[in-house]
Amino acid sequence: MTKVTIVEEIMSANDRLAEQNRALLDAHGVFAINVMASPGAGKTSLILRTITAVAPHLTLGVIEGDTAPVTIDADKVLAAGMPAVQINTGGSCHLDAAMLAKALPQLPLADLDLLVVENVGNLVCPAGFKLGAHANIVVASVPEGDDKPYKYPGIYRGIDALILNKTDLLPYVDFNIPYFRQGIELLNSEAAFFPLSCKTGEGFAAWIEWLLAKVGVMRDA
Amino acid sequence: MTKVTIVEEIMSANDRLAEQNRALLDAHGVFAINVMASPGAGKTSLILRTITAVAPHLTLGVIEGDTAPVTIDADKVLAAGMPAVQINTGGSCHLDAAMLAKALPQLPLADLDLLVVENVGNLVCPAGFKLGAHANIVVASVPEGDDKPYKYPGIYRGIDALILNKTDLLPYVDFNIPYFRQGIELLNSEAAFFPLSCKTGEGFAAWIEWLLAKVGVMRDA
Fold first, then answer.
1. Mind listing the pLDDT tens digit for each residue in B164-196?
2. Which residue of B has its CA nearest to A69?
3. 3-state secondary structure (DSSP) of residue B31
4. CATH assignment of the domain containing A183
5. Measured between alpha carbons, how far is A118 from B125 in angstroms, rounded to an integer?
């Protein structure tokens, strides 16, 4: 009983901070997305290709969540000419709203239209912690296998878009797209679905169109 | 300070239970391996192919850790003719020694030579919780990318063997094996390294030879 109470208090504190993050983002007209995935599904590749695609239309900043003090991903974003802040979680398996609250003031929020938050690579823990983002995205990938929605259901509930990356590997991997989608439908029939390849660019335009519409909707509101 | 104390107490309790698990396994002459990996790296494929390879030499049981009450992996093991027990972690991101302690009596330990424990697919959390296994194994996979040791260092420290699965995809993916191995060497220069493909069987014999030697060493001790 004590354990439950502690967890509830932590979650409640996190939710309050997430609301504050959202308010700060809204005050600056920044649309934020929280990008979650298994390690190696292609979050950083997605972000880098998204930067290139949206750069003519809007200004973008990136927050990189890492469990270790390496700046591999943040360096790639900086090299692409976009402001990036790294959050080192110190071994923790997910970002939380407090970490984001510390990182946000380090970005030029007044100049940004879109903020991309790359969560720690993990299909379990990030699902439990709201950050205050306007949209939650999961990047799945073909070589991970088509059974992941059945095995890791928590992460797919409540997300706004599901990207299936590495479709260029479909010829070399056993992956049943209808079985995968059926698993998602059972958990979340609302999420937009974008099969694509960050390597070849196939399918990427639909994702960018969706993203730009989302950002536009908020900016016009 | 309070938080640190609580975490230390949890870890200490886990370590004590892990020692009890080890003693129970030793009492029955069972060699146990804890198989950890990112979701979709191929833990279940490795286990199924390992069952086929070792079945002529020894008797094997499997414990499947899952975050959800699905029995996809356990069913595959049962279909392969081996005793399997599923641990549903109820959403938790890793197995711990207490979960294993509950599962062990459900297996015919007296009949087993080898116990394979498939941990929850996660490159962060399982590293922190000893189970009592005799060997800890990480299954990496080619499409995950060669930078994972740099980004998720915790899981590679202290492991006994590292498997690099899905080498059949090397022609289609940018994966620098020397860069990957260099990252591992910095963390753990002792781990045995087995590049292999569970799909084609390439490289599998070396892993089986290592595993049989490990089991043999303990049984003769």
1. 999 999 999 999 999 999 999 999 999 999 999
2. B151
3. strand
4. 3.40.50.300
5. 18
